[in-house]
Design brief:
- The structure is a single chain.
- By secondary structure, the protein is α+β, with helices and mostly antiparallel strands.
- The protein is 35% helix and 36% strand.
- The chain has 11 helices and 15 strands.
- Strands 11-10-12-13-14-15 form a 6-stranded mixed β-sheet, with helices on both faces. It has a 3-stranded antiparallel β-sheet with strand order 1-2-7. It has a two-stranded antiparallel sheet with strand order 3-6.
Length: 301
């Protein structure tokens, strides 16, 4: 574990490489501010005014300046700071030792005057005092998360990838609609000239509704192949313009994972896609309200 952390946790994702670390969280506590404060001799803390004073008893150390300084000389201030930094139980132990033996030993480390120093009962007073605090002071702690974005994205892609059960050459990236870079594909059934205006209108309305949309108008390829290559890009929905669109302004909506399709007016389908990509509704809920169509099933198999 890192020297600056009091605890660490890792998050791992299981992939074909086994378990790989993707997130590391270090509890740095107040290490950074504490070290800077010790080095600069400046308080680096938060001061919070209290609505009501905080009253409590605290064991404190009060040096006798007439004896403490002259006896310890250069070590006087470091020894005093050390005593003031001790926990209540440690200070109580020194008090008990002074009461029993009349003297106690203080060990300094990490200072310019490291070593053992003897203190005697006449050098200081250790006693409980009533402390009244109107301001709370504390040093903020820090939790430091570190994310391996490349590993997370790789795991997302690997976990989302599959192949069609009936054709191992047809890969599918089953991205959640909220995460897919492009949400909807708009394409024509063929390259018929009458489809062009409907194609552009469908794309315009989807984009105006805030749906990232891609148009695949390379009609030289069969529509099943165009569906397949966009399935590999992870686009969850596809709107198809066909000959019935020219007659009644309806289009089909295809869902990537099931390859099932429904038909509705362009306005209706745009509303459905918007709800689907935002998570307001699900494809399963849509299928309970619309009949399936089989317009291009033979090309999508």
């Amino acid at each position: 574990m890192a020297h600056y952390a009091c605890d660490c946790w890792d998050a791992e994702i299981y992939t074909t490489y086994g378990w790989i670390e993707c997130v590391g969280c270090a509890d740095r506590s107040a290490y950074d501010l504490r070290v800077h404060s010790a080095s600069t001799k400046k308080k680096l803390c938060v001061r919070e005014s209290l609505d009501e004073p905080l009253v409590y008893e605290k064991l404190t150390c009060e040096p006798n300046s007439k004896v403490f300084g002259p006896k310890l000389k250069r070590a006087a201030k470091p020894v005093q700071e050390h005593l003031e930094s001790l926990a209540a139980d440690e200070l109580a132990e020194i008090k008990a030792t002074l009461a029993r033996d009349g003297k106690a030993t203080v060990t300094l480390a990490g200072t310019a005057v490291d070593g053992d120093y003897e203190i005697t009962a006449d050098m200081l007073t250790i006693e409980n005092k009533t402390i009244i605090e109107n301001v709370r002071e504390y040093t903020p702690n820090v939790i430091e998360p570190s994310f391996g974005i490349g590993r997370i994205l790789y795991a997302l892609i690997e976990h989302s990838f599959s192949v069609r059960a009936d054709d191992e050459q047809r890969g599918v990236l089953s991205f959640n609609a909220l995460m897919a870079p492009f949400k909807c594909l708009v394409l024509p059934l063929s390259g018929h000239a009458s489809f062009a205006s409907f194609l552009h209108e469908a794309a315009r309305r989807l984009r105006a509704a805030g749906v990232p949309t891609r148009v695949d108008d390379a009609a030289s390829a069969p529509i099943g192949r165009r569906y397949a290559r966009n399935d590999e890009l992870g686009m969850p929905f596809a709107v198809t313009v066909d000959f019935q669109t020219v007659e009644d302004n309806t289009v089909t909506l295809r869902e990537r994972d099931t390859t099932k399709q429904i038909r509705g007016s362009l306005e209706e389908i745009v509303g459905l896609v918007t709800s689907l990509v935002s998570g307001a509704t699900t494809w399963e809920e849509v299928l309970t309200k619309y009949e399936l169509v089989d317009t291009v099933a033979k090309n999508d198999a």
